[in-house]
Amino acid sequence: MLTFDEIGSLDRCGSPVELWKYILEIARKYGFRATIYACPPPHRKPTHPETIIRYAGISTENFQKFAMIGLIKQGHITTENSLLKGAAFRWTEIANFTKSAKAFQNLKQDANSFDMDEGWIFPLFGPQSRNGLASFGRPKYEQVMDREAGLRFHIFAQMAHLRFCQLTPDLYGIDKSLSKREMQIIAWAATGKSNSEIGTILGLSESSIDSYMRRAFTKLDVHDRTSASVKAISMDLVRT
User: Fold this and answer.
1) Where are the domains of the chain?
2) What is the CA radius of gyration of the chain?
3) Distance CA 123, CA 24 (A)
4) First vs last C-alpha separation in the chain
5) What is the pLDDT of residues 22-53, one digit of tens each?
6) Could you give the CA distance from residue 27 to residue 229 in angstroms, rounded to a whole number?
7) pLDDT at res. 153
8) What is the pTM of this model?
C-alpha cells in the first residue's frame, strides 16, 4: 500500500524532470503500467495547445486516440466535469460523464483494443485555477483498484500536482507564450548549441535564429541565452 513517507518524498523533487521520474517510479512500483498527467493553462480545456502533458506506458498514437480524441475531444471527460465530481473515479465509471451511450461504447472498444480498460482518474486542484487531471492505469493487481488505495493514490497525485505548481510558479506568468519555434531554439541553446549550429539543425539562417532568440528574450524578460535557457527550463516551457 502506498505510504505517507512516499507521498512526503515528493518535496525532495527539485525539478519537473525529477518529479515526473518519481511519479513513474511510484506508479510502476504498485503495478500501474500507464501514467498520464495533463495541466492546462488556467480556465482552459485540456486540448489547449499550451497544456502540459506527460504520459508513459502508452504509445503516442494510442494516447492521442484514447485520451485526447476519445476522452476529451468527444466530451466524455473534461477538466470541468471531473473537477465537479471532486473525487477519484475509475475508467469504468466514465460512462457517468457522457450522454452518448453509443460514443462511449466506441471509446470502450478502442480502449480494450490496446489494454486501457481499467485505471484511476484523479481531478487535481492547484493555485490560481491551475487545475488538471492525472491517471494511473493498466494495473497488474486488483487490490490497487479498491477505494482505500484509490484515496491514497489520489492524495499522491494531488500532492505531486501541487509540487509541480511550486516548482513552476511563473509558468503562465509571461505576457506571451513562446512559439513552437522559439521553444525549439531555446531548447537547443540550453544544450550549448550556437546560433549557427541551431540554424543548421533547423534549416534556418543564423539571422533568423537570432531574431527568434531575441523575441524569446523579450517574452521571458531576460537578456542572454543562458538566462533564457534556465528560466524556460525552470518554467517547464522547454525540456532538454
Assistant:
1) 4-167, 180-234
2) 19
3) 18
4) 34
5) 999 999 999 999 999 999 888 787 778 888 89
6) 30
7) 97
8) 0.72
